[in-house]
Amino acid sequence: MLSYRAGAGPSDLVRQQLWPLGRTAVPGWRDCEPAIFVDQDEQVALLARCVSETDLPADVRAAGALVLLHGAKITRISTLKTDDVHCTAKGSSTIALGRPHQ
Question: What's the domain of life for this entry (predicted)?
Fold first, then answer.
């Protein structure tokens, strides 16, 4: 049964439950470059699916297109807001993928 004192945070609860195990090493987040790439023909085929396959949800298709066209990271795509999309009077649009939100 998990219980912890009033005012104790979640990290105190974790420490309380793990103390019998002794020292526990938790590996850090690895932010490394991709090692597996698709060839150009496969990339074009995947992009065609993102554009035309209506069985996939629109957000999945848009995210897939951003990854395939711009190499955008999913963690960055998931933080996009409507303010990051800019439409011009001529009908073109841009998406601000540069800096993450603060």
Answer: Bacteria
CB 16 within 8 A of CB 4: yes
CB 47 within 8 A of CB 68: yes
pLDDT above 50 (res 46) = yes
Torsion of CA 41, 42, 44, 46, to 10 degrees: 170
Tokens read off for 97: 């993928």
Domain range for 63: 38-102
Count the Cβ atoms, other than its own, within 10 Å of residue 12. 12
How far apart are the C-alpha atoms of 87 and 84, rounded to whole Å?
10
Our count of domains for the chain comes to 1
Residue 70 token pair: 């711009």
SS3 93: strand
Name the more confident of 20 and 65.
65
Instruction: Write out the two tokens for 102.
Output: 């603060």
Tokens of 5: 């004192």
